[in-house]
């Protein structure tokens, strides 16, 4: 946006004596070569910053998904801490709510204050949360299983503190995730491979569950009396996570940088004003007010330079907030955003509930007294399967959409009608088609489990964890990508945060439903040994075995995901949808 120099700016100019023609030619040649060198050096330094930020964001995300391995130690909360299934789900729900609910606020802060404050916040939340959880677990485990004390009221304080610890962990996960993804979205919004760049931290987040579960179960495991490796040592695992994630958060403060954010805002203002979505009169009025208030008195150059620097910084912040607030209003008023957000809620909620309860679901598939190891499986194995399929889906989505999906001409909010950047491309598959395909895989996995096909055949459970992992990972990868494609990158963290906070309600709801069905199943097993599919595994009324422990929950979740597919289809092809408006997606 061109501007003219103000009178206050002109009084700083120093006019030297007129140069000769020869001097002028030499000087022009020298300045041109010097400018080219400075420009090349500046571009290289920016590329280095982008690359370092991409690597740092991927590493941070690779560690940030520690909450995904909750099912690895959830059975220990039942057996060692004597929690009920409702209490275990209460801890999981606390972390899920804290993971999703504050993401819109954190996204708002990220867009307006930068990613460094969120990285610092994540370090202290992770360190404090896992540290507190480790202390509580160590104390209760020692009292109940070493000293033989009964579960008394004097330890009633411990459960609220455990929930608080996992609320801190969930909030730390939210802060680290949104800062990592936002950095990549803004740094590579112009690039040809924006999908792959955005998929890198998202994939790292999905992969974190796999490597953390394997590391914990292999290198931080308890030793059985016979010297063999047992289950994960929860206390040591929590301490390890506290130290690791605190260090990663601190490193993120210094390595996560957004390059040329001011230029991004200027470009967004120009495009939105040309499209008529923004009225530039308020910006022009502020600029004129700044000039008229500058005065023409004889102010010392150094003092006025300081004032001008402060005014420029203040104007930059004001313009940034101005355009971001306008884009937020535009995003919230878009009627297609709401069915899209609801579809995301209905898809991710069942996926979250599944991974949180994976450990106890596996326990319902085989009788507790069985000796046949061929019919048993471990939570760590299926957390890893979930992580691998989720990772493959995220990377595949990032690559395929860059190659096959249409690309808009702009990295800012799309103003119909839009044209693809490659008009000669004959074959293109919409990102919505990819999302629908993987949502169907997610529903198929849930319905396969609900049908009882894995009951007494735990070796078939990989079908469930694989399909749910692939669907969950792809949906989580495509949703932020679609947000950047349709509504731009400069306000990405705020926009995606508004959508991403909704699954907190889905995770909470389905967690409570699963707990109710599981507890009802365990009570019926203990009172009715002839329960169909039950081999009298109800000797412990806190543990449930049989199809009746989970079938109703997963039938309902599968139907929920199918309904989400129709909502997504409506946002795309329905009346006034993206297709009718000419939005490239």
TrEMBL record:
Lineage: superkingdom:
Eukaryota
Q: Which residues form the signal peptide?
A: none
SUPFAM superfamilies hit by this protein: MFS general substrate transporter
What subcellular compartments does it reside in?
Vacuole membrane
Q: Matching CDD domains, A to Z?
A: MFS_Mch1p_like
The name this protein carries in UniProt is Probable transporter MCH1
Instruction: Output a single Gene Ontology CC term carried by this record.
Output: fungal-type vacuole membrane
What is the originating organism of this protein?
A: Hypocrea atroviridis (strain ATCC 20476 / IMI 206040)
Membrane topology of this protein:
Multi-pass membrane protein
Oxidoreductase among keywords:
no
Q: Which family does it belong to?
A: Belongs to the major facilitator superfamily.
* Gene Ontology MF: a single term: transmembrane transporter activity
- Keywords attached to this entry: Membrane, Transmembrane, Transmembrane helix, Transport, Vacuole
Is Transport one of the keywords UniProt gives this record?
yes
Region Disordered: start and end of each range?
1-38, 288-311
InterPro entries, per this entry? MFS, MFS_trans_sf
Coarsely, its chief localization is membrane
Q: Gene3D superfamilies from the entry? A: MFS general substrate transporter like domains
Q: Which residues cross the membrane?
A: 51-74, 86-103, 115-137, 157-181, 193-214, 234-256, 428-449, 461-489, 496-517, 552-572
Q: What segments bear the compositional bias annotation Polar residues? A: 1-11
């Amino acid at each position: 946006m061109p501007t003219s120099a103000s009178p206050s700016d002109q009084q700083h100019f120093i006019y030297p004596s007129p140069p000769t023609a020869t001097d002028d030619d030499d000087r022009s040649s020298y300045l041109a070569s010097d400018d080219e060198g400075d420009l090349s050096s500046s571009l290289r330094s920016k590329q280095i910053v982008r690359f370092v930020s991409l690597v740092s964001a991927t590493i941070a995300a690779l560690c940030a998904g520690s909450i995904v391995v909750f099912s690895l130690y959830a059975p220990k909360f039942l057996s060692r801490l004597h929690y009920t299934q409702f209490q275990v789900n209460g801890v999981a729900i606390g972390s899920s709510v804290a993971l999703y609910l504050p993401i819109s606020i954190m996204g708002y802060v990220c867009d307006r204050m930068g990613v460094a404050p969120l990285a610092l916040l994540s370090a202290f939340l992770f360190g404090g949360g896992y540290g507190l959880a480790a202390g509580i677990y160590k104390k209760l485990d020692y009292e109940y299983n070493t000293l033989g004390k009964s579960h008394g009221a004097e330890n009633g304080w411990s459960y609220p503190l455990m929930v608080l610890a996992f609320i801190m962990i969930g909030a730390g996960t939210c802060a680290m995730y949104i800062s990592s993804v936002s950095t990549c979205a803004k740094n590579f919004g112009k690039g040809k491979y924006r999908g792959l760049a955005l998929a890198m931290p998202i994939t790292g987040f999905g992969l974190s569950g796999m490597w953390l579960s394997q590391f914990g179960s292999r290198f931080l495991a308890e030793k059985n009396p016979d010297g063999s490796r047992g289950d994960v040592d929860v206390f040591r695992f929590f301490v390890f996570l506290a130290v690791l994630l605190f260090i990663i958060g601190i490193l993120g403060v210094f390595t996560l940088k957004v390059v040329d954010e001011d230029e991004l805002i200027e470009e967004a203002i120009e495009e939105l004003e040309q499209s008529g979505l923004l009225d530039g009169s308020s910006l022009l009025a502020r600029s004129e007010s700044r000039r008229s208030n500058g005065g023409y008195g004889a102010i010392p150059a150094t003092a006025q330079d300081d004032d001008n620097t402060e005014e420029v910084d203040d104007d930059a912040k004001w313009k940034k907030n101005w355009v971001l607030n306008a884009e937020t209003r535009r995003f919230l008023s878009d009627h297609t955003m709401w069915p899209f957000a609801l579809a995301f809620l209905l898809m991710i909620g069942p996926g979250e509930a599944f991974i949180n309860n994976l450990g106890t679901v596996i326990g319902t598939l085989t009788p507790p007294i069985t000796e046949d190891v061929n019919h048993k499986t471990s939570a760590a194995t299926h957390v890893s399967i979930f992580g691998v399929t989720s990772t493959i889906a995220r990377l595949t989505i990032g690559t395929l959409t860059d190659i096959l999906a249409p690309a808009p001409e702009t990295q800012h909010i799309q103003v119909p009608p839009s044209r693809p950047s490659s008009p000669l491309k004959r074959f293109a598959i919409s990102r919505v088609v990819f999302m629908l395909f993987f949502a169907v895989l997610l529903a198929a996995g849930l319905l396969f489990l609900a049908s009882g096909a894995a009951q007494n055949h735990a070796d078939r459970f990989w079908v469930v964890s694989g399909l749910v992992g692939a669907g969950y990972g792809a949906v989580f990868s495509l949703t932020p990508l679609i947000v950047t494609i349709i509504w731009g990158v400069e306000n990405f963290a705020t926009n995606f945060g508004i959508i991403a906070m909704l699954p907190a309600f889905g995770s909470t709801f389905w967690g409570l439903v699963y707990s109710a069905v599981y507890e009802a199943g365990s009570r019926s097993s203990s009172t009715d040994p002839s329960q169909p599919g039950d081999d009298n595994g109800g000797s412990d009324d806190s543990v449930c075995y049989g199809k009746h422990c989970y079938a109703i929950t997963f039938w309902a979740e599968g139907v929920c995901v199918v309904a989400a597919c129709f909502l997504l289809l409506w946002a795309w092809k329905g009346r006034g949808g993206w297709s009718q408006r000419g939005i490239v997606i």
